[in-house]
TrEMBL record:
The keyword Transcription regulation applies. It comes from Cryomorpha ignava. GO terms for molecular function: DNA binding; sigma factor activity. Belongs to the sigma-70 factor family. ECF subfamily. This is Sigma-70 family RNA polymerase sigma factor. Coiled coil: none annotated. The keyword Transcription applies. Residues 129-179 form the RNA polymerase sigma factor 70 region 4 type domain. Keywords: Sigma factor, Transcription, Transcription regulation. Pfam families: Sigma70_r2, Sigma70_r4_2.
Length: 195
């Protein structure tokens, strides 16, 4: 039988302790992941209140479904997926278009960094906070696909499955979101040059 890494063993021990009702372990798990998960929910909610509801409901599901964590892969990744799926379920349930993001360090996938790094260097002074604020102004549908693809690292196939749309719709929404984002960034850069 293959032994897991130290991290995997620690994750499994923490999960098992939570399942036995150990409040200290539950508090540790919550404290360890709550900041990242709230940031994730802020990307999906229309506003802070909705994001907070997604966050709270998501953590309830994490604790309810913790017995499903099998120790394969990081616990944080399992929690992230559980909370993201909960947020997407709420979006579908509310029959809205999709997503939101708060001012925090945007973690773009590597292949997308080159698309936006032009707008995020010292010369242009377009910070991650400003990029995040610009993302918040995108129409909800664009924001959802953009965040899922660029920030959450979903494939177009996964996005289509999660949102109940076709892959081509996901690709089209992403392409439109990129164009919309470029226009917003150019306007912001022109505004900062003229100031």
């Amino acid at each position: 039988m293959k032994k897991g890494t130290k991290s995997e063993v620690e994750d499994m021990q923490l999960a098992e302790a939570c399942l036995t009702g150990n409040e200290k372990a539950q508090a540790q798990l919550f404290d360890q992941y709550s900041g990242q998960m709230m940031a994730l929910c802020l990307r999906y909610g229309r506003d802070y209140e909705e994001a907070r509801d997604m966050f709270q409901d998501g953590f309830i599901k994490v604790f309810q479904k913790l017995d499903m964590y099998n120790g394969k892969g990081p616990l944080g990744a399992w929690i992230r997926r559980t909370i993201a799926n909960n947020a997407l379920d709420q979006i579908r349930k509310n029959k809205r278009e999709k997503v939101h993001e708060e001012s925090y360090q945007v973690e773009f996938k590597y292949e997308h960094e080159t698309e936006f790094e032009l707008f995020n260097d010292d010369e242009n002074e377009l910070t991650n906070e400003k990029l995040t604020a610009l993302i918040e102004t995108m129409p909800t549908g664009y924001r959802t696909v953009f965040n899922m693809y660029v920030v959450e690292d979903y494939s177009h196939k996964e996005i289509a499955e999660q949102l109940g749309i076709t892959e081509s719709t996901s690709k089209t929404q992403y392409r439109k979101a990129k164009a919309y984002m470029r226009n917003l960034i150019e306007e912001e850069l022109n505004k900062s040059v003229s100031d």
